[in-house]
Design a protein that fits this description.
Distance between the termini: 69 Å
InterPro entries: HTH-like_dom, Integrase_cat-core, RNaseH-like_sf, RNaseH_sf, Transposase_IS3/IS150/IS904
Low-confidence stretches: 344-349
Radius of gyration: 40 Å
Organism: Kitasatospora cystarginea
Oligomer: single chain
Order of helices and strands: HHHHHHHHHHEEEHEHEHHEE
Largest sheet: 5 strands, mixed
CATH superfamily of one domain: Ribonuclease H-like superfamily/Ribonuclease H
Protein name: Integrase catalytic domain-containing protein
CATH topology of one domain: Nucleotidyltransferase, domain 5
Helix content: 40-55%
Function: Involved in the transposition of the insertion sequence.
């Protein structure tokens, strides 16, 4: 639009504007050493320079310094070579992830200890490299990590020594209240329903406590603590049974159900998946229902706290996919379990 206006102006105005622009260029040249022009700027200047007088056009396209710079750039492009790598090759992402995993899972392991574990796994990594990776990942040294213990980590380490017990009640069709006594292993989430009755007493609960080692088998001697509430049915005889097995009984504070959260959560799960969806007729019926559901809970139900494994599953065994899936009905079809049909060959990956 500016170029269209220029033909209508007088020659004196154009000459005055040219003088003003020349003076502005001279001022800018004193302040800017070498301006950087884009390809669009160069195209505009090239187009306008064709209409300049020969004496001025001769020095507008390119300067000797620019021509020499272009030649040096061509020489560099001709003899350009990929940069040579110096030193050891970088570690793979798998080794870096393994170092981070060993660091986070073992709070007392230092650089040399992790280096030795990696060597036993078939990876030779220098201790300085391990230290550099841990610093880059924001992982502090072993003394600082060992001092930063959290309650979550502490409880997970002690979970294999804890038991939790409680009562759950169920109302029958005729509005008769029944009580079921159960014990849970906190580490494995394995549940044991020990008895069902309409009139629980201290002697009945103590006798069930004596029967617990038979249900646990070889695991009975590995528990050091039992969490229970302050129900009057837990008498001194009940505590003496566990004291004889070197298990200390820990009563929860009054009116604190969260202190026995694992047992309370199991009661909620049983109600939501089983008893609230059935009509219980009596003690025998409830005993059979809880026995079947407990078997499903321990062997056929995925648990979020166990990385979607069941308590009786073997985490080190990876099942292969099968061509056919078999369904097993639990509690008359109230729940379902799925596994591979026997005799079927695994599918190709």
């Amino acid at each position: 639009m500016g170029w269209l206006v220029m033909p209508g102006r007088s020659s004196a105005a154009n000459k005055a504007e040219i003088l003003a622009l020349r003076h502005e260029v001279a001022v800018l040249r004193r302040q800017v050493g070498r301006p950087r022009m884009s390809w669009a700027d160069r195209a505009v200047l090239f187009t306008l320079a064709r209409h300049l007088p020969p004496a001025l056009r001769r020095h507008r396209l390119v300067t000797p310094g620019t021509l020499l710079a272009w030649h040096r750039r061509l020489v560099r492009w001709k003899w350009r070579q990929p940069p040579a790598r110096h030193g050891r090759p970088p570690l793979s992402e798998e080794i870096v992830a393994l170092i981070q995993r060993l660091t986070t899972e073992n709070s007392t392991w230092g650089y040399v200890r992790i280096q030795g574990e990696l060597r036993r796994l078939g990876h030779r990594v220098a201790a300085a490299t391990i230290r550099r990776i841990r610093r880059r990942s924001g992982l502090p040294p072993a003394p600082q990590r060992a001092s930063r213990k959290t309650w979550y980590t502490f409880l997970r380490r002690q979970a294999h020594t804890f038991l939790a017990c409680d009562f759950m009640h169920v109302d029958t069709v005729l509005l008769k209240r029944l009580y079921a006594f159960f014990v849970m292993e906190i580490k494995t989430r394995r549940a044991h329903v020990l008895g069902v009755t309409a009139h629980p007493s201290g002697e009945w609960v103590a006798q069930l406590a004596r029967n617990l080692p038979m249900d646990q088998g070889d695991r009975a001697g590995g528990f050091r603590f039992l969490i229970r509430d302050r129900d009057s049915k837990f008498t001194a005889a009940f505590d003496a049974v566990f004291a004889g097995n070197n298990t200390e009984v820990i009563p929860t504070p009054p009116q604190s159900p969260r202190s026995n959260a694992f047992a309370e959560r199991w009661i909620r799960t049983v109600r939501a998946e089983c008893t609230d969806r059935l009509l219980i007729t009596g003690e025998r019926h409830l005993r059979a229902v809880l026995a079947e559901y407990t078997e499903h809970y321990n062997a056929g139900r995925a648990h979020r706290s166990l990385e979607l494994w069941a308590p009786d599953d073997e985490p080190n065994v990876i099942p292969l996919p099968t061509a056919a899936i078999r369904r097993r009905r639990v509690l008359g079809g109230l729940l379902n379990e799925y596994d591979g049909a026997p005799g079927q060959s695994p599918r190709s990956p």
